[in-house]
Amino acid sequence: MAIKNRLTRDHVEHYDQKIINFFKRTYIPAARLALFAVFFWFGFIKLTGMSPAGPLAEALTEKTVGPELFDVLFKILAFIECIIGVLFLIPKAVRIVIPLLFVHMAVVCAPLVLVPELTWQEPFIPTLEGQYIIKNLVIIALAFGVAAHTEPLAGRERA
Fold this sequence. Notes:
The chain is mainly alpha-helical. It contains 8 helices and 2 strands, in the order ααααααββαα. It is 75% helix and 3% strand. It has a two-stranded antiparallel sheet. Helix 1 runs antiparallel to helix 3, helix 3 packs antiparallel against helix 4 and helix 4 runs antiparallel to helix 8. It is elongated.
């Protein structure tokens, strides 16, 4: 019985290690692809005028810089989202995309504070729009993972 338990445990540990190794090999490419998909897709639908985020962005613009700037600022935001998506596909672009991502996140998360009537039903109970914004925490964590696996400048061979 002890031999059978040992063989079963060894078998499980072997496959567990294979699965972990698979995730280690594929995490960064999968994360980059996921970040590209989300940013490029959402940016693209904003550029084409089909984004459901339009009314929330318009409310934010009205409260901050004025409604007359909405169209141009929404298109700029959309274009930046597409650029962020593309940059996540380029490993050497991490040092550019991470700061750009943080500026973008500051803008897109601002409605939680500046337009609470559209993002909160009551304290700690977000609307669907609020949930859409709060999910950005996952995007930030994923971007941290990509950045954490970036080769440091000091580690490169100098030409």
